[in-house]
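Hey, can you fold this one?
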Amino acid sequence: MKSGFLDKLIARLDQVEPGEVQRLVMRLVREKGFLESVFEALQEGVLILDPEGQITYVNQAASRIFGIDPAKSIGQSLSTTVRGLEWNKLADPGRIVSRDMEILYPESRFLNFYLSPMQGEVENDDHTLGYVLLVRDITRSRIQAEENVESEKLNVLTLLAAGVAHEIGNPLNSLGIHLQLLERKIKKLSAKDQKDLGHHLETAQGEIRRLDTILKQFLQAIRPTHPERESLHLHDLLRDTLNLLAPELEERKVRISLDLAETTPLLQLDGSQIKQALYNLLKNAFQALPASGGQIDILSRVSDYEVTLTIRDHGSGISPEAMGSIFEPYSSSKKSGTGLGLLIVRRIVREHGGEIEIDSKAGDGTTVTISIPRQDKNVRLLESTEPSVIELDPVSEART
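Sure. Predicted structure:
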């Protein structure tokens, strides 16, 4: 039913027979109910607004996305109901608005909204009856796009890796061999000459070792690997790593607080890779603490689907500017850091089917959580709201 016809009908309502009015009203009710059923079936959020930006209709998808009550939001302005959508900046009868936005409530999502005016016609003059706002959740596609970009970056680095290994690795080995020959000859010199030249030799050897370490970390961060899995307990690998770091933790006066789950299931893990990831995370944690020492909290939790391990320090934290590039190669806030540690950790965790999350605030410490899926996922029966009834055929039941 066209809006122009409705406008003309309303203008001449007193001239229409009551029976005809009732028939038209019933038709409108049926059409309204049909349209609402269609809107409620959509996965996209739908909001209908009047020309002043007051909400006249909200479907269930929109109320779920924005965390609003459909009944209470009717008659309220869009600007006060949904933070970030300022009506005076969006409304324009002459154009369609399409933008992306990020919301943090009721959960973090990336959205795309489409605001279009609804035009009506009264006596050959166009006017705006209201607006329709369509909202799509693009969180998954956005994450996928970011992962694709990251994959492309790693592919580029992988192509460079072979050249780096050849062009830098071989000269480093050659330099190391020649420095060893020089060291033998220096030992045959007088004590005074040995002291003078030995200092320079030690510096050169130290720099070569550092370059060799950077090269190995770079190749390790980007080279595709296949974990050699076996049934292991995550807590055992954690304790082995803590024992390895014990002398350094004691020297730095770092306290370790453990809050571990009583029991953990066996996981299919590559022990050496997981210990390397834990080593990098723990080292990052105690290096963020002040020189006088501090505390690192380690927690583990077990759910029906995964095992999570959280490492929390109370150190300097990470600034918002640096958070965006913590997984970028060679991005490090440490003077002697290579910026490859977290990249290696994430690669290892993801190769085990898990994920890593980092929450940090400058001056308030950093929390890193890794989650690894269980192989023996428990099966849970969902509660049914209706009783289950199975009707048996009398003949079949008799045979049983």
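Residues 3-140 form a domain with the Beta-Lactamase fold (CATH 3.30.450.20). Let me know if you want another pass with a different chain boundary.
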